[in-house]
Amino acid sequence: MVDDILRLKLALLGSAFRPGATLARTLAVVVLGLAVGAAIILLAMEVDVRLAGHRAGLVIVASALAIALAVAPLSAGLGSALEPRRFASFPISPRALALGLGTAAAVGLPGVLAAVLGIGLELAWSGTPTATAAIVAGALGAVAIILVSQYLVAVGALLAVSPAARRLVTGAARAVIVLALAVATTTVLVVQAGGDDDTLVAIAGTLGNTPLGMLWAAPGSDIAPLLARLLGATIMVAVLVLGWGWLVARLIEAPQRTRTSAPAHGLGWFDLVPATPAGVIAARSLLYWWRDARYRVVVLALPVVPVLMMLAFGAAGAPLPPLWLVPLPVLALFLGWFVHNDAAYDHTALWLHVAAPVRGAADRWGRCVPPLLLGVPLVLALAPLFALWSGVEGVLPALVGVSIGLLLTGLGVSSVASAIGAYPAARPGAGPFDQPPMLGVRAGWAQAIALLATILFMAPALVVAIGGFAQPAWFAVAGVAGAATGLGMLLLGIVIGGRAFRRRAPELLDLVLRT
Description:
Elements: H1 2-15, H2 23-46, H3 52-75, H4 94-105, H5 109-124, H6 131-159, H7 163-193, H8 197-208, H9 214-217, H10 223-253, H11 277-291, H12 293-301, H13 304-315, H14 327-337, H15 342-345, H16 350-355, H17 360-390, H18 396-420, H19 441-457, H20 459-467, H21 473-514
């Protein structure tokens, strides 16, 4: 049975290289995999484990790559995944199926790269007293990565019962891979720069005490922690093996999970909003943000941009504590900027706004409700934590005011931009990474102008906030200036955008109908 499953896996891998629309993507993935594998081996040969910074970097990079490899099978989509429920109709014992699927998981690019990662750990510690421990840790790490990837594929296939859900799982997996590779690359750059070793050591120490990093940290530990980590990892792998057999048996015996609709009670969001045009549009916008994959992937990806910026500044040598002031304003900026093309996302539903006597201001207000409900509580909840972690005295008012100002100003600018600078968008039901066929240079200009306009309008408050690092009294002024600027720009954007929407409503409808 194992042989049959392996042949099936090889046949699936071979089919990806057949001439067709997916061949270019397959070759690109193979090239990326080869580059990652070569980088692992080269870095393992260059690392000097006698240096604390190098040892810490090794743990962080290996942990980040382990996450990327564990979710990699999900990034290819679940349509052709070898998951247990596909074999439920065949007379196969759960134990044989679990063994076959686990073995087949090692055949493929993620499985090969997991083995390469284990070999890289062995190469890094070769010639040291803990070389044998590195061999054991590398082997256990490769097995753990492969088993975790199988768990994720099985659970992902169980949960993704609709095309939109499958696209969401795939998009989230790709975002995780990009973020993990960015973390690994930034860590390598920081180690090569030879600075901030204390921060790397602290991060590696934390990872070394978790299931994610204990195997990669084991060879660099003293004898007692080394044995404890190897024992813990052995127990972890044993639990994964036993749990995999149980999960396979459970999935092939349980009934197929289908998508069911819960009985409707009331009108949902429409029961919670005022019975006004703005309230109805707000409820419909909330439904879009909650159910539409085009919106959900943006909400999931929004935290990635601030993290990447922090990593870039950290790699450039910026001190870590003040960098905690970066994520929240950047998150607020992009959350307000995202709705700059919101009208085009409606597609044919926009005709309701055109045909009905809806005031333009009501349309603009309704579309601002979801980012306001998401952004304002997020800023108020996270600002005290980020201000505390930054270690900058008195910065909290500036952080709250500037973040709220960027959010409100972004919404005001977007209210105007979505009326006068709309461009084709993906249709409802499309995947989060689908692009319309008519997308041109106008989209790039609209995105850039909306983003730069938001920053320009908030520039005075940002300058005052920067001055607060020299004179802390300016932080309070920056907070008031940021919030006041944001509120004024939001109200102004609602008025101007509302008038522009009513005036250009037929042109907007023509745009979305031609997409």
